[in-house]
Design goal:
Structural class: alpha/beta
CATH topology of the largest domain: Rossmann fold
Number of helices: 18
Distance between the termini: 35 Å
Number of strands: 11
Number of domains: 2
Mean pLDDT: 95
Shape: elongated
CATH architecture of the largest domain: 3-Layer(aba) Sandwich
Helix content: 25-40%
CATH superfamily of the largest domain: Crotonobetainyl-coa:carnitine coa-transferase, domain 1
Strand order of the largest sheet: 3-2-1-4-5-6
């Protein structure tokens, strides 16, 4: 079988939290050897269940970067590596001796990726930043409130999209290196991520219509049995089908509802009609009937329920591991499919410092030298 797309690419991962960690995990999913460099205390998000979903397939080394010996280990990893990733506040990596200027002098082919909150220059660089901060600042919470109170999205969309942008940038920089022979520094931030996430919303012109209102054909509904489902009628063809499915064919010819924008503008006339209809029967009835007319609709359910969906199982999107800390661990499978260079399961997320000895042995350290570094608290993880 052919190797995965990033087989042979070595990544030094000094990130923590979500955006940086998940970006590095995406590289591991595509076959890269990702070494997660952690402090002796570990990634600040290790206590969260989500840590497993942001760090699968990595090898963990725990060391004290404030010691000369710890910095020397990272320098060696960077010298032999292809990608270096960090998400520290601007200036911190330089103070720790792992900044781009220093590491690129040791390895000019190194692709160096920084993921920050506000960017490395300009206003806000000194401020900490997490996903909800940029949901609030960037307009996501207002948008999700549909004109009412702002809503907090717990899925951390800014983090995940910033991770995707970072991975995209790293792959582009590796491609450019194939042409030039040189690595480079690339940067993204939660500020950039939340703007890019809203490409269709961050548009402004004098006649732009107001879309932040309840759309009768693109919203949640509660059926007669109290169960919820989402109706996604996004164009005129689906609108016509919906009118037929609900036995309301006269609405299809009603000029008040002749377009997406008109249905928004006249939502108070249309919404009660659809709500009353859907309350007349249980959810199972409506899911079956709407599917019969090829109308996009889905039941509201939990993530655990979704993991059992036939399509999720068919596409092998749930993988199971035996993890030494939590036992049976189920998490997402591979999100990409390559015909000629298929991905492999990169393995479970690591325990803190799990691969410290293994990695140092690969770098040429003797057992005695490793034991000495442990005695002097340069290294962490299991002996």
């Amino acid at each position: 079988m052919a190797a995965p797309p990033l087989e042979g690419i070595r990544v030094v991962d000094l990130t923590s939290y979500i955006a940086g960690s998940y970006a590095a995990m995406q590289l591991a999913d595509m076959g890269a050897d990702v070494v997660k460099v952690e402090s002796l205390e570990g990634d600040s998000f290790r206590e969260l269940p989500g840590f497993f979903g942001w760090n699968r397939g990595k090898r963990s080394i725990a060391l004290n970067l404030k010691t000369a010996e710890g910095r020397a280990i990272v320098e060696t990893l960077a010298t032999r590596g292809d990608v270096f990733m960090e998400n520290m506040r601007p200036g911190v990596a330089d103070r720790l001796g792992v900044g781009h200027r220093h590491l690129s002098s040791l390895n000019p082919r190194l692709v160096y990726c920084s993921v920050t909150a506000f960017g490395s220059t300009g206003p806000g660089t000194e401020r900490p930043g997490f996903d909800p901060i940029f949901q609030a600042l960037g307009g996501l919470m207002t948008l999700q409130g549909f004109g009412g109170p702002p809503q907090y999205l717990r899925t951390a969309p800014t983090d995940y999209y910033t991770a995707a942008v970072a991975t995209q940038g790293i792959l582009a920089a590796l491609f450019a290196r194939e042409r030039t022979g040189r690595g480079q520094r690339l940067e993204t931030s939660l500020l950039r991520g939340v703007m890019a996430l809203q490409s269709g919303v961050a548009v402004d012109y004098p006649s732009k219509p107001t879309l932040i209102r309840d759309n009768p054909t693109y919203r949640l509904y509660q059926a007669g049995d109290g169960a919820w489902f989402f109706l996604a009628v996004g164009n005129q063809a689906f609108w016509t089908k919906l009118c037929t499915a609900l036995d309301m064919e006269d609405l299809a010819a009603d000029p008040r509802f002749a377009s997406w924008l008109l249905r928004l503008q006249n939502n108070q006339a249309l919404l009660p009609l659809i709500e009353e209809t859907f309350k007349s029967a249980p959810r199972a009835h409506w899911l079956e009937r709407l599917a019969k007319y090829d109308i996009p609709v889905a039941p509201v359910q939990t993530v655990a329920e979704f993991m059992e969906h036939p399509a999720v199982r068919h596409h092998d999107l749930v993988h199971e591991y035996e993890h030494p800390e939590v036992g049976r661990l189920r998490m997402m499978g591979q999100p990409l499919v390559f015909d000629d260079t298929p991905t492999r399961d990169p393995g479970p997320p690591p325990t803190l410092g799990q691969h410290t000895g293994e990695i140092l042995t690969e770098l040429g350290y003797s057992d005695a030298a490793i034991a000495d570094l442990r005695r002097r608290h340069v290294l962490g993880g299991p002996a």
